[in-house]
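Sequence of CopD family protein (Promicromonospora vindobonensis).
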Amino acid sequence: MFRPSRVMHASARLVVGLLAAFVLATWCAPFASAHTKIESTAPAAGSTSDVPVDEVALRFTLPVTPLGDGIVVDGPAGTVAAEVASAEGGLVLVATPGEPLAAGDYTVSWTAAAQDGHPLEGTFGFTVAGAGPAPSGSAAPEEQPEDTGGEHTDGPHGAHDMGNMDGMDHDAMAMDSPASNAAQAVARLGSAVALWGALVAAGALAFAGLVLRAEDREDVPVVLRVVRGSGLLILGGLVIHVAAGSVHLAHGDLAAAVSPSAIADSLTDTTRWALGLQAVGAVSITVGARRTVPGSWLAILGGVLVGAGHVLGGHSNTAEPRWLVMSADVAHLAAAATWVGGVVAMWMLLRRRSRDGRALDAALIGARFSVVAAVAVAVVGAAGVVLAVEIVDRPAQLWESTWGLLLLAKVGVVVVVGAIGAYSHFRVVPRLESRRFRQRSARKAGNLLRRSATRETSLMVVIVLITAWLVAASVTD
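Predicted 3D structure, token representation.
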């Protein structure tokens, strides 16, 4: 006889065990310092120079690519014309004014892209008090105690024109303007839309191939229509992401961001590859989803390309050891897609069957998918622990940084969804399989399973939204 109390106790032990493993692994493992942040500046933030300044230099912990103008210096007379260049293989960005900076207060605004494609930006200030001779030679970035920025922002990022100082409004206050913040939020929403489409497309394909059998062949085209629609959703999300990211990089200036050249300038080589793979994959999914799974080989290939684009543009792209982190990221994404897309596909299938008044063996469908989902959840948890251990520099970042707080929020929602899935597996499916329940209408069985899938789908939307903000957030801020 099935006893709910045993299920509750087993589920509680499972949740406690997973959380304990997560905390223990995060706390005890050796952490990798693989996150790009600004290390020092010359002049130092908040410092006062007694002589004119002939260059401004920023040193980073890992190589970066300047975005847009890279470094913008604003002084008493407005924006200072300067040539921006990279040095030491991208570890240092240098802005050289046409003339040494004279006495006055100066604000430096900078934008750059990390190796994983994520943009960084920040501001700092310094004062020139003297009018003596300018220092000779190159200034070495100095260590400074003050925070000079370095927060990951959302949106595309990339190739730059080192000498271009005429394109955008460079007011440092515009970097945190309502228009710029709104564009940043829209860009992250576009990322969430594209990620949701990718998970549903890949997971629905897996559902059609692993859960549906010969007796369900009339339902396969229904699931594959969901796959085609998801391909279009990915394309729409990418367009929103690129356009809004360009507006954010232009600090909310629409006129400066809508031109093709401005959008092209907002993309680094890494981002072009990441978004390009996703776009090609989305097109392949849209045109390649046919009426059968074997006939949808192009859509399957498209799902692989979209996944490769997501991995290429993630935080794991710079973490070490690369083979372990990348493998964990691939496993995490594949398992999440199988879980999320499978739940959505089952919900759509049950809903359509109920609407059309067709009979459905809900117990059989539920039992098959619960096995697949259980494996997927286990892989998601294991891969997630590996990624957290390798990406986080120190355990305190889990509660001291935006990235860490978002990760904890995501883990919390995932635990809730997992609990709902466990309830379906241990409680709902056995009930549907019972002889007494089978004597009732199949419609009621389908409705019971659909309600559970509806709850999971709603929470999974929340997980994807958090993930979009998580990918764009800085691990160190």
